[in-house]
Amino acid sequence: MQTAQLSNGVTIPVLGFGTYQIDNQDVPESLQTALDAGYRHFDCAHIYGNEAEVGAALKKADVDRKDLFITSKVWNADQGYDKTLAAFDQTLKDLQLDYLDLYLIHWPNEKDFDLTLETWHALETLYDQKKVRAIGVSNFSKDQLQQLFDVAKVKPMVNQIERHPYKVQADLGQFDQDNDIVNEGYSPIGHGHMILEDETITKIAKAHEKTPAQVVLRWQVDTGFVVFPKSSKAARVRENFDIFDFELTADEIKAINALDQDKHLNYD
């Protein structure tokens, strides 16, 4: 497994397993399939509604805690200093953990960004208390990040954003890199919105004897993004993990970058 290094020296596996929209009753089987395939990085969030089930599945698994990388996120309704600390405690309880590897602000608060800044100060407190190894944000723009930089004692180490071949995020991605922020990409294959049938993608896949999904995930990794695809199908879970035995050429990466349409497939 390849890893990326956060600004504080913590390493993060570049490929993880997403837990969004996994039905509670399916969590045990899905997580065990992912663990068996080799995944050790799991991306969670309180709003997903399945952290208790994820925690139970991880507790049951025969994997040392130190070998896992667990992320969660504070939801908008829990923003604010005290509410964030309480939400974090609930997430730890649900996940049955003593600490998190990464805690993120799920979204910037559109109506009251000062509340988001309070939330960040709560994350800094959790980081100082060593209850979390790294802190970051999700869905933040350059302007929002700059506002955060102006008041932060600890700069965010991660920005998790929508990213796929139809929304390459070149400008924001570069801004993050320039500020020692590791990019994470959600919806890494775009929910299959024609991306996996794109002629450019399928041609590259054929050349490498790989699937279109594997090519897109390899592109994500080769361009410096941490990603965590999700699938309920065991064969697809294993397939998504099998991306470390080939590399894309510079021309292939350029061709995929050229597919950019700045197209949001999720909420903007």
Automatic annotation (TrEMBL):
Which residues constitute the catalytic centre?
A: 48 (proton donor)
UniProt xrefs under Pfam families: Aldo_ket_red
Please list the residues that bind substrate: 106
Superkingdom of source: Bacteria
Q: Which SUPFAM superfamilies match?
A: NAD(P)-linked oxidoreductase
Task: Identify the residue position(s) of the site Lowers pKa of active site Tyr.
Answer: 73
Which keywords does the record carry? NADP, Oxidoreductase
What family does the entry list? Belongs to the aldo/keto reductase family.
- Protein's recorded name: Aldo/keto reductase
Organism per entry: Levilactobacillus suantsaii
